[in-house]
Design brief:
This protein is α/β, with parallel strands linked by helices and 801 residues long. 51% of the residues lie in helices and 13% in strands. The protein is rod-shaped. Bound molecules: adenosine-5'-triphosphate (ATP). Residues 8-342 form the Kinesin motor domain.
Length: 801
């Protein structure tokens, strides 16, 4: 019999043997696939508009054939493929009495007339025994659906039927349908399997009506779960297939069967469930329909994964080919034709055994490690490298290295293997995360944060700060408790004016130290963890020199886009912002300022050293002069000696004293000239430093306005140096700079102590120097001012010629 090549459900016709075969109505084509039905027009009517001819093309016809032929032609292939891992379904459909149960189960007493199920069991176990390379496990379930209620025909416990039915329910897992609570009995042999079949058969619901004395009043699904594993290969994959052998209850016309009472009710359920099945098949066969209502009945739900799709499905359409059953025959053939349109793409159900998979992965891992070790040995210097997972200690060391790398005390991270690289990246990520969290926490402690875009929609700078707890009455949605980022508009009375802001800022000095710590953290927020460390100070200096030489140094306002990416939603205090400015936008100018200051400090040191030397020389001169005077007086007391030219003769000691005195005076003059030159240079440097200070302040004001206060980008660029802020109302640039420096210094207790110490020293010096004459005091004070202005505490010159 030629097979259809299309991937659809296969459908075969089987006729029940009868002596009243409607040969004038039903004819079979020579291809053994075509059924033609010709009904004579009704003799009682003048015009018969009903269709009188039908032709159905199926996958095969079995007219008056025995059970073996049906099994071999229809069932055997599906069963063989189920042993290969494919799901399979063999289903009998037709009117009551058409021979469905006969086809599926057959006469249990008559061995030659046994049906598909017992033959399938025999074939399966014979086939399993012949497949020596595989181990099979067969489990059997027998489900009955009676009046749309499920019943376990193989239940072992003697439980009341109602309770059993309640315990059964249909579930789905990744497209596979299963009945929860249904017992699956292991059958290790054909005999055990047949016993289960007989056991289930005895529990089936059977009734009697005119057309069938032993009519099945239920749908029965005999299921074999077949698990197949390869014995030879240590493959973690194995197959689990489900073979459903379905004997549907037969549709019946109540007018013909005369069923009443219970039988009538049963017939109603049967017909209803078959209608749902037909509807499901209709939808499955229609490509345009996406939805199939399988849950309409227990039958369709239980067969959801057993009709077409991944399942190898075969249907036998049983017909009773007598004239009186013509309508049922046509109806069955129509359903058969529809079933033939249901697509089927059978696929093997492979399952991965997790235990086996782990075993295989371990083996492969071991093999790869050995390969790697061999490779490292052959390629020289990688022989000492370990590929084991990193220990706690190693991870701790990596974290230390990363932290040192970030703060610049470690130049580069040594890369050893992939595990270490991953650990480095993870550590850097964690550091970034924790730093982000700390910064956010600090912000939350101090500010009510709000989105900058939202701020721009409000009326400018007034809404920059909001006061916790003042948003009481309107419909704004901003968070004002300081615990989260605000997402709404603060009411106007909750906004703080610039004056209030100034007060707030000043009142925050108590937390200055924490702000300082915050500033250092803030710096690390923007650090992107890379394997290249930050530029060294030398590199920065050389870059600074280059930029100064190139005359196009840019000290202007920041590029808006770049700033807005890193800008917090709420402005920091000016001191914090000033520190940030010095690190970022004002770094070049700050570097020049620092350079000038360093030069000035160096000169001041030189100046102090020179002063100390001058004082020393002065002391030597005084002493030498006194010695020389003493010697001269001694000589005069002894009487003067002169040579023939009348010149006074002195002794050697006096001569040396005089020579030394002259030498000291000469040195003194040189040093004093240098001292005066140095003094001018220091004054010049001081001017440069002052200029830089002023410039820094101006640039910072402009930057701060553009970055945090100004909302009008056009006007801020037009302003050049930026708008006048609240500080400029009260202070000039130098005062502001000094105040900010002091505030920063005051934030650190050590620095406070240092400043106090310097001031005390300065006081002492002033007291001492008050005893000097006016000229000396003026000179000394000038030097002291220069020495101590930056905290230099050197010995001051206390005497001048
Ligand atoms: N191919 C066949 N060869 C011999 N007897 C048959 C055949 N088909 C059906 N019969 C007989 O017809 C009668 C009804 O068959 P069967 O019970 O299998 O029908 P059914 O379709 O299952 O009906 P129901 O739906 O009511 O259960 C039985 O006595 C059976 O022996």
């Amino acid at each position: 019999m030629p097979q259809r090549t299309s991937n659809k459900v296969k459908v075969y016709l089987r006729t029940r043997p009868t002596n009243n075969f409607a040969s004038d109505i039903i004819s079979f084509g020579r291809d053994n696939r075509t059924v033609t039905i010709h009904r004579a027009p009704s003799a009682n009517t003048v015009v018969d508009n009903n269709v009188t001819d039908w032709s159905f093309h199926l996958d095969g016809l079995f007219h008056n054939v025995n059970q073996e032929e049906i099994f071999n032609a229809v069932a055997k292939d599906v069963i063989d493929r189920s042993l290969d891992g494919y799901n399979g379904t063999i289903m009998c459909y037709g009117q009551t009495g058409a021979g469905k149960t006969h086809t599926m189960t057959g006469f249990s007493e008559s061995y030659p007339n046994r049906g598909i199920i017992p033959r399938a069991l025999q074939h399966i176990y014979q086939e399993i025994n012949s497949r020596q390379d595989y181990s099979y496990s067969i489990r059997i379930a027998y489900l009955e659906i009676y009046n749309d209620q499920m019943c376990d025909l193989l239940r072992t416990v003697d439980t009341p039927n109602d309770l059993i039915q309640q315990q059964l329910s249909i579930g789905e897992d990744r497209g596979l349908v299963y009945v929860k609570g249904l017992s699956y009995r292991i059958a290790n042999s054909e005999e055990e399997a047949l016993n289960l079949l007989f056991e289930g058969e005895t529990s089936r619901s059977i009734g009697q009506h005119i057309l069938n004395k032993q009519s099945s009043r239920s749908h029965c699904i005999f299921t074999l779960l077949i698990e197949c594993r390869s014995i030879l290969a240590s493959d973690e994959k194995y197959t689990v297939s489900k073979l459903n052998l379905v004997d549907l209850a037969g549709s019946e016309r109540l007018a013909k069967t005369n069923s009443q009472g219970i039988a009538q009710r049963e017939a109603t359920f049967i017909n209803k469930s078959l209608s749902f099945l037909e509807q499901a098949v209709l939808n499955l066969s229609d490509k345009k329909t996406n939805t199939v209502h399988f849950r309409s009945s227990k039958l369709t739900h239980a067969l959801k994964d057993s009709i077409g799709g991944r399942c190898n499905t075969v249907m036998i359409a049983n017909v009773w080919p007598e004239t009186q059953h013509l309508e049922e025959t046509v109806s069955t053939l129509r359903f058969a034709s529809r079933m033939m349109c249901v697509p089927a793409e059978p696929a093997v159900n492979e399952v991965v055994d997790p235990i086996k998979a782990v075993e295989n992965y371990k083996k492969e891992n071991k093999y790869l490690r050995e390969e790697l070790a061999l490779h490292d040995t052959l390629h020289g210097n990688r022989s000492g490298i370990s590929y084991e997972p990193l220990s706690e200690q190693q991870l701790y060391e990596i974290e230390n290295q990363c932290r040192r790398f970030i703060d610049g005390s470690l130049d580069e991270l040594e890369i050893k293997n992939v595990r270490q690289v991953q650990a480095v990246f993870n550590t850097l990520k964690n550091i970034c995360k924790s730093t982000d969290g700390e910064v956010e926490k600090k912000y939350r402690e101090r500010y009510v944060l709000m989105d900058k875009n939202e701020y721009d929609q409000t009326d400018g700078q007034k809404a920059r700060y909001t006061v916790a707890g003042t948003n009481q009455n309107d419909n704004s949605t901003g968070e004002l408790d300081g615990q989260g980022f605000g997402s709404g508009n603060a009411p106007k009375d909750a906004r703080t004016s610039k004056d209030q802001l100034l007060k707030m800022t000043k009142n925050k000095r108590g937390v200055k130290a924490s702000v300082q710590r915050y500033v250092s953290k803030l710096g690390s927020v923007n650090v992107k963890p890379t394997l290249k460390r930050n530029t060294t100070e030398e590199e920065q200096m050389s870059r600074l020199k280059d930029s100064r030489e190139s005359t196009d140094v840019y000290y202007g306002p920041p590029e808006t886009g770049a700033k807005e990416q890193t800008q917090p939603s709420t402005p920091p205090t000016r001191n914090v912002a000033f520190e940030e400015f010095r690190q970022t936008r004002g770094s070049n100018l700050n570097a020049i300022y620092q350079e000038n200051k360093d030069i000035m400090l160096a000169k001041k040191k030189q100046f102090a050293e020179l002063a100390r030397r001058i004082n020393q020389t002065k002391g030597d001169i005084d002493k030498t002069r006194m010695d020389a005077e003493r010697k001269k007086n001694e000589r005069l007391n002894l009487g003067e000696f002169t040579n023939e030219n009348g010149e006074t003769i002195i002794d050697e000691e006096e001569y040396e004293l005089i020579s030394k005195l002259q030498e000291l005076k000469a040195n003194y003059r040189v040093d004093f000239d240098n001292w005066k030159t140095l003094k001018s240079e220091i004054a010049y440097c001081q001017n440069l430093v002052n200029q830089c200070q002023q410039r820094l302040i101006q640039e910072f004001d402009s930057w701060f306005n553009d970055s945090y206060l100004s909302t009008n980008k056009d006007t801020r660029s037009a302003n050049g140096l930026g708008k006048t802020n609240q500080f400029q109302v009260y202070e000039d640039a130098a005062e502001r700079f000094e105040r900010m420096q002091k505030e920063l210094l005051m934030s650190d207790l050590d620095m406070f102590f240092l400043v106090t110490q310097v001031r005390l020293e300065r006081l002492k010096i002033k007291t001492r120097s008050s005893a000097f004459d006016t000229k000396k005091r003026l000179e000394t004070h000038a030097m002291q001012d220069l020495w101590y202005e930056d905290g230099i505490n050197e010995t001051q010159p206390d005497a001048f010629m």
